[in-house]
Amino acid sequence: MIFADTSIWIDYLRHRNPQMQNLLAQGKIVMHPFIVAEISLGSLHNRQERLREMEKLFSVRVAHLAEVRKMIEEHALYSRGIGLIDAHLLASCLLTPGVLLWTRDIPLQNAAQVLNIPLISPII
Q: Is residue 112 within 8 Å of 101, Cβ to Cβ?
């Protein structure tokens, strides 16, 4: 399973990246509700249809705030340039076995490495 973050989704929605399209068609992309919420804040072509399609994808496990805070403290993830949503995404990766994180965000990649979360390169 591949967990594409918001940066990957924005690229896909703007340019219809064929690699992402292929992975979606194969059912290999998983979703987090915070990503759908972030994307919903932007301007979308066929807005309601796109958001419905995203919401239908298999979701990673969503961490509770207490779990996220514990992860931040236990792994010293503070002052690393990530925000709360990024921390939630990382916690979901830890809670959902077999997930690979796909992101263009360097601070998020660095934090994922601290947690030993497997990453895939920005271009598949």
A: yes
Kindly tell me if the per-residue pLDDT of 105 is higher than 80: yes
Q: Kindly report the CATH number assigned to the domain that includes residue 78.
A: 3.40.50.1010
Contact status, residue 29 vs residue 23, Cβ threshold 8 Å: yes
Beta strands in 1-124, from DSSP E residues, in sequence order = 2-4, 29-30, 100-102, 119-120
Q: Indicate if the alpha-carbon torsion angle 86, 109, 117, 23 is positive or negative.
A: positive
pLDDT computed for residue 16 by the predictor: 84
Number of structural domains the chain divides into: 1
pTM metric for this prediction: 0.91
- Tell me, what's the pLDDT at 122? 62
Range of the domain at 41: 2-120
Q: How far apart are CA 61 and CA 110, in angstroms?
A: 22
Q: Output phi, psi for 33, to 5 deg.
A: -60, -25
